[in-house]
Amino acid sequence: MNRLVDFSSTHSKTASADCSLEATFRDPAGQLRLTEDCALRQIRPAAWEETQAFLASPLCNALEQSGDLIASKIARPDDHACIADGELWLEHPRVDPISYPWEWTTAQWRAAAELTLRVASQAVAAGWALKDATPLNILFAGPRPVLVDVLSFERRDPRVTVWLAYGQFVRTFLLPLVAAKYLSWPLQAMLFTRDGYEPGDIYKALPRRQRINPALFDVVTLATLLERRGQKADEAKKMPSASDPDLAAHILQKRITRLGKQIRHAAGSPNRSQWSNYTQLAHHYQPGDTEQKQRFVREALERCRPAEVLDIGANTGSYSRIAAETGAKVVALDSDAAALEALWEMAALEDLAVTALVANIARPTPAAGWRNREQLSLLDRLTGKFDLVLMLAVIHHLILREQLPLKHIAELSASLTRRWLLVEWVPPSDPMYQEWLRGRDELYGHLTEDDLQRAFLPFFAVAERLELSNRRVLLLLERTAEQTDATFDADNPHCEAQPLDKAGAA
Amino acid sequence: MKLLRIFPLVLILLGAVMLSERPAYGYTDPGTGLLAIQAAGSALVATGWYLRRKLHAFFQNREQTEHNPAEQTGILNTEDPPRV
To answer: Is residue A274 part of a domain?
Structure first.
């Protein structure tokens, strides 16, 4: 019997006693609940007939077979306590971790949009329609987008030439990409809006010459000019229709094709940043050091055989790839969207089990939505989920750029991993450390590997250690049974006051 | 000249696409401006669809006529059933 996920421990104390996650509740056809093992979707009686007809349709079968749509089966009341007699519930597999659109790269947005349009096109051809089209209906299973909202399908009136979800697709998929390309509004800003941007928002901000750009003219300029204020309620309910059903289907397919072109135009070419070429330009690494590091990481992964790996500061994914090649399911985090885009493209091309999330572990994505309960924070989704966590060349960023004490970094690491932690210590003499030190030698210039071990050893024991010729150090740490509350050095919060226990050091 | 003859039909079709309305039930906001550009786009696509059909039929008829000179000269295949 599955238990509903209890998020009470990770949510604020003001939350109600019943903290099971109601992931959706706006759709009048049903609602979704997440359990530890599966997602359960309750179907309201008014939608029973249509839902069952869709599940039995060749379209549903084809979409499930291609992997574009999440698998569904009728949930049995015996398996789930929340199902009462006479209710209809569907059971779907969980896609973990949940990735939200504000944590996707531009290429992921494009892949999710193209999936939505592909499904919409197949639905039109089969006599169905997508009644909503939002990125929130898409999750990434590894590098692959999957439509997870089975209730998005409804029978299509064969003569109607309007796709009702067109407006939502434009607002939530196309215009955020347009804003990112032409206005440099970050895609991460979608955290703050449920229904995307209105055409008028973009129109006001666009330079005049872009308002007549053929790729934007209809969805931005024309849509803004045709916007009618104070429209009567009954006017909005009238939909244009054609006398010939073939013509109606043709119009809808043309519209979907046009949206596909606009998405490809707006998603543009891949971005480049300081970090997206980091691996190729890493002059502080001699080829021998890189080989040694990769061998150490691979051997550690083969020794520990983790099922779930978190790669913090994954950059372009050299080590996520090694982890995936050893059979692990990997979640790769990086705050640099361009670097992570290269990672996602590599994972998609090679079909590696790597989920890419644009996120900063030092400023984790907050919870969002109604009562902060619709979308989970990053740490709610990651805490305690991994057998091994990689923190390669990331700790000096947390110290120097985020100004985090080592003790806090150690505590967070201990909360993320169930057992193993692989860290790379970058000494103050390293050129990358010096680059970010910026005259703050008194605060950070004296830190040593001993300080790192002092901070981490209350939670971990050293299982393996390797010093590279560039003086960077790799440490494989194993979680000890119980953490102790390390005493805190008020004079220097970046060091621990406890004596260094070298017993575990190799 | 034949294209000129079908022009009124195109206008009628445009009218049919633009004016015919059916009730719709959705729970997402279709927008007003974005709904209007769908209606305008429908009319454009419908025009292209209709013209393409007509052009296709026009050239198909010409090809059939060129490949079947008997029909042009009025000489019927002896195996054809007599026209009533």
So the answer is: no
Determine the residue among B25, B29, B38 to mutate to test chain A binding: the one whose Cβ has the most chain A Cβ atoms within 10 Å: B38
How far B54 CA lies from chain A's nearest CA (Å)?
14
- Whether residue A276 is contained in a domain is answered as no
A243, A306: one domain: no
Q: Is B12 on the interface with A (CB under 8 A)?
A: no
**Would you call A162 and B18 a contact, using CB atoms and an 8 Å cutoff?**
no
Residue pair A379/A364 in contact (Cβ under 8 Å)? The answer is yes
Judgement on whether residues A182 and A218 belong to the same structural domain of the protein? yes
Residue A281 lies in a domain: no
Q: Is any Cβ of chain B less than 8 angstroms from the Cβ of A101?
A: no
Q: What is the pLDDT along chain A (506 residues), one digit of tens a residue?
A: 444 443 433 333 333 333 355 566 778 888 888 888 899 999 999 999 999 999 999 999 999 999 999 999 999 888 888 888 889 999 999 999 999 999 999 999 999 999 999 999 999 999 999 999 999 999 999 999 999 999 999 999 999 999 999 999 999 999 999 999 999 999 999 999 999 999 999 999 999 999 999 999 999 999 999 987 655 555 555 677 777 889 999 999 999 999 999 999 999 865 556 556 655 555 566 667 789 999 999 999 999 999 999 999 999 999 999 999 999 999 999 999 999 999 999 999 999 999 999 999 999 999 999 889 889 999 999 999 999 999 999 999 999 999 999 999 999 999 999 999 999 999 999 888 888 888 888 888 889 999 999 999 999 999 999 999 989 999 999 999 765 444 444 444 444 433 333 333 32
Per-window interface: B 37-76 vs A, CB < 8 A: 37-42, 45-46, 49
**Distance of alpha carbon A170 from alpha carbon A163, whole angstroms:** 11
Q: Provide the b/e sequence for A270-289 (b: ≥16 CB within 10 Å).
A: ebeeebbebeeeeebbeeeb
Q: Does B10 touch chain A (CB under 8 A)?
A: no
Whole-number Å distance between alpha carbons of A261 and A233? 33
Separation CA A310–CA A296 (nearest Å): 17
Last residue of a domain, one of A235, A269, A303: A269
Are A223 and B28 inside 8 Å of each other by CB? no
Domain-embedded: residue A10: yes
Residue A119: count other Cβ atoms within 10 Å of its Cβ: 24
User: Which secondary-structure segment (H or E) carries A55?
Assistant: helix A48-55
Question: How many Å lie between the alpha carbon of A350 and the closest alpha carbon of chain B?
Answer: 37
CATH number for the domain harbouring residue A17: 3.30.200
Q: How far apart are CA A499 and CA A496, in angstroms?
A: 8
Residues A223, A239 within the same domain: yes
Q: Which two tokens stand for residue A92?
A: 């779907």
Same domain? A319 vs A412: yes
Cβ-defined contact of B17 to A240 (cutoff 8 Å): yes
Judge whether A254 is closer than 8 Å to chain B, CB to CB. Answer: yes
- Nearest CB among B16, B21, B38 relative to A166 is that of B38
Domain that holds residue A89: 1-94
Write down the H helix ranges in A103-207.
Answer: 106-125, 166-169, 175-183, 199-205
Of A134, A160, A218, the CB nearest to B22: A160
Q: Is B45 in Cβ contact with A227 (below 8 Å)?
A: no
Picking from B20, B25, B31, the nearest residue to A240 by CB comes out as B20
- Same domain? For A499 and A389 the reply is yes
Pick the last residue of a domain from A218, A243, A269: A269
Q: ipTM of the assembly?
A: 0.72
Instruction: Count up the domains in chain A and report the number.
Output: 3
Residues A315 and A451 in one domain: yes
Residues A262 and A296 in one domain: no
